[in-house]
Amino acid sequence: MNYNFQFNVVWRNFDVLLEGAWLTLQLGVFAFTAGCLIGLVGAAIRSYGPAPLRWLVNIYVIFITNTPALIQIYFLYFALPEFGIRWSNEACVLIGLTLNAGAYLTMILRAGFLSVRQAEMEAGETMGMSLPQRIRYIVVPHIAKSIYPALANFFIVILVMGTSVGALIGVDELTGQAINLSTVNYRWLEYFTVAALMYVVLTFIASIGLALLGRWAFRVKARIF
Amino acid sequence: MPHLAVNGIHAKYGSLDVLHGISFDVDRGEVVSLVGPSGSGKSTVLRTLVGLTPVTGGGIEVDGTSIDYRSSRSVRAARDRMAIVFQQYNLFQNMSVLGNVTLAPRRVKGRKRQEVEAEAMDLLDLVGMAHKAHAYPDELSGGQQQRVAIARALALRPEILLLDEVTSALDPELVNEVLDAVRRLAAEGMTMLLVSHEMAFVREVSSKVVFMDQGKVIEAAPPAKIFDAPDSERARDFFGKVLRG
Ligand SMILES: Nc1ncnc2c1ncn2[C@@H]1O[C@H](COP(=O)(O)OP(=O)(O)OP(=O)(O)O)[C@@H](O)[C@H]1O
Ligand SMILES: [Mg+2]
């Protein structure tokens, strides 16, 4: 291969890539956190809610998980303005990713609701705890502990695959910035190599963060790799 | 007026009838024991009292007030006065011992953390578990979990304590520890309904023994009477076996 790598162009614009990475991390953390809240409510409704609400949640989950995230975000960005709803490109990515994550997390967290020990729920009930209290103090710690690896994996999926969709509607997260920069001076290979490495570093940092959080908050003996 | 009156209750699991008209009374400060063969419905009686298994006939009164198990307010009022220790302890696995004991007093009764924790440590001390306050249930033996479950129930400050086989998972030394705790509570005037296979203990601690078989009360009498000179053939047969065996 005769390609002449010139990384100094990349280093000159490294701060721009860093900004992109920072936005990627923010988008990922927000969509995941908000998605977890949606997923928790969705899973609780699917487990304990009345039939009409359960159907609504099922429709939401089926609809979202069977269509590409890109189409969902395009819908928010290009189709909603037809109905007079106009959001910025960043808002569209954020809302789209959150709704998308919420549907997947409803399914993931549902497994946690199903596997919680009935005996503990009964104990809580006889002690006078309300259903929301039982969810908060019995189900959530159980979920956090028993399906922590699945949750951590899903966070990485959003962080890496989810957020990069933003580039397609001009959100300057890491992939977006790499595209922006390389269209200026055609150093595609350099920019994308560095961007890829930055994704690896991001997921590495995120994994360590999640493992520490799991150990500290939920007694999860998670291995980092 | 009895503290707890059980009047002809029926209960079923799905289509299986398990209780066929159970009646007995427990006076204030009295200790009553439910005994009978495995599967006779003893645990189910306790479950109906705390509203976990629906009552399909008959009724239950606490202090003369009948509990309406279809009304969540009435059930909540009943649960406020009764606490149950389950046969399988049912501790919260993802919470420390101290967390298990303090959760409901703090979150349900809304009491202050410091006060609740101090009281919890006293209760754990009472059952000999203070040194494990920060351990998790999966780090404890069955008997240790059992004792934590007793402390957790007492932290609710119940008027009526329901104990389901609290000594079944214990070695003989610990049995005595737990029985001592129960004795102390009885002496303090706690109303108790207990399910037990420890006949010597039942005889010593209870003022009345309710003998159940196949979802019915066969005979209810003071321990001396029911152990030594029961009226029914079935009770004679059962106690003859367990007391000798
Ligand atoms: N969750 C359940 N679903 C269906 N049947 C049940 C359930 N729990 C108990 N049963 C049945 O109800 C009957 C009474 O059970 P229960 O647990 O009250 O007996 P017990 O007297 O406490 O027995 P043991 O001394 O073994 O604890 C038994 O025939 C049992 O098989
Ligand atoms: Mg039982």
Automatic annotation (TrEMBL), chain A:
<dbReference type="GO" id="GO:0022857">
    <property type="term" value="F:transmembrane transporter activity"/>
</dbReference>
<dbReference type="InterPro" id="IPR000515">
    <property type="entry name" value="MetI-like"/>
</dbReference>
<keyword id="KW-0472">Membrane</keyword>
<keyword id="KW-0813">Transport</keyword>
<dbReference type="Pfam" id="PF00528">
    <property type="entry name" value="BPD_transp_1"/>
</dbReference>
<feature type="transmembrane region" description="Helical">
    <location>
        <begin position="191"/>
        <end position="213"/>
    </location>
</feature>
<keyword id="KW-1003">Cell membrane</keyword>
<feature type="transmembrane region" description="Helical">
    <location>
        <begin position="151"/>
        <end position="171"/>
    </location>
</feature>
<dbReference type="InterPro" id="IPR043429">
    <property type="entry name" value="ArtM/GltK/GlnP/TcyL/YhdX-like"/>
</dbReference>
<comment type="similarity">
    <text>Belongs to the binding-protein-dependent transport system permease family. HisMQ subfamily.</text>
</comment>
<feature type="transmembrane region" description="Helical">
    <location>
        <begin position="92"/>
        <end position="113"/>
    </location>
</feature>
<keyword id="KW-0029">Amino-acid transport</keyword>
<feature type="domain" description="ABC transmembrane type-1">
    <location>
        <begin position="21"/>
        <end position="210"/>
    </location>
</feature>
<keyword id="KW-1133">Transmembrane helix</keyword>
<dbReference type="InterPro" id="IPR010065">
    <property type="entry name" value="AA_ABC_transptr_permease_3TM"/>
</dbReference>
<keyword id="KW-0812">Transmembrane</keyword>
<dbReference type="GO" id="GO:0006865">
    <property type="term" value="P:amino acid transport"/>
</dbReference>
<feature type="transmembrane region" description="Helical">
    <location>
        <begin position="20"/>
        <end position="45"/>
    </location>
</feature>
<dbReference type="GO" id="GO:0043190">
    <property type="term" value="C:ATP-binding cassette (ABC) transporter complex"/>
</dbReference>
<feature type="transmembrane region" description="Helical">
    <location>
        <begin position="57"/>
        <end position="80"/>
    </location>
</feature>
<dbReference type="InterPro" id="IPR035906">
    <property type="entry name" value="MetI-like_sf"/>
</dbReference>
<protein>
    <submittedName>
        <fullName>Polar amino acid transport system permease protein</fullName>
    </submittedName>
</protein>
From TrEMBL, chain B:
<dbReference type="Pfam" id="PF00005">
    <property type="entry name" value="ABC_tran"/>
</dbReference>
<dbReference type="GO" id="GO:0005886">
    <property type="term" value="C:plasma membrane"/>
</dbReference>
<keyword id="KW-0813">Transport</keyword>
<protein>
    <submittedName>
        <fullName>Polar amino acid transport system ATP-binding protein</fullName>
    </submittedName>
</protein>
<dbReference type="InterPro" id="IPR003593">
    <property type="entry name" value="AAA+_ATPase"/>
</dbReference>
<feature type="domain" description="ABC transporter">
    <location>
        <begin position="4"/>
        <end position="239"/>
    </location>
</feature>
<dbReference type="InterPro" id="IPR017871">
    <property type="entry name" value="ABC_transporter-like_CS"/>
</dbReference>
<keyword id="KW-0472">Membrane</keyword>
<keyword id="KW-0547">Nucleotide-binding</keyword>
<dbReference type="InterPro" id="IPR027417">
    <property type="entry name" value="P-loop_NTPase"/>
</dbReference>
<keyword id="KW-0067">ATP-binding</keyword>
<comment type="similarity">
    <text>Belongs to the ABC transporter superfamily.</text>
</comment>
<keyword id="KW-0029">Amino-acid transport</keyword>
<dbReference type="GO" id="GO:0015424">
    <property type="term" value="F:ABC-type amino acid transporter activity"/>
</dbReference>
<dbReference type="InterPro" id="IPR030679">
    <property type="entry name" value="ABC_ATPase_HisP-typ"/>
</dbReference>
<dbReference type="InterPro" id="IPR050086">
    <property type="entry name" value="MetN_ABC_transporter-like"/>
</dbReference>
<dbReference type="GO" id="GO:0005524">
    <property type="term" value="F:ATP binding"/>
</dbReference>
<dbReference type="GO" id="GO:0016887">
    <property type="term" value="F:ATP hydrolysis activity"/>
</dbReference>
<dbReference type="InterPro" id="IPR003439">
    <property type="entry name" value="ABC_transporter-like_ATP-bd"/>
</dbReference>
<keyword id="KW-1003">Cell membrane</keyword>
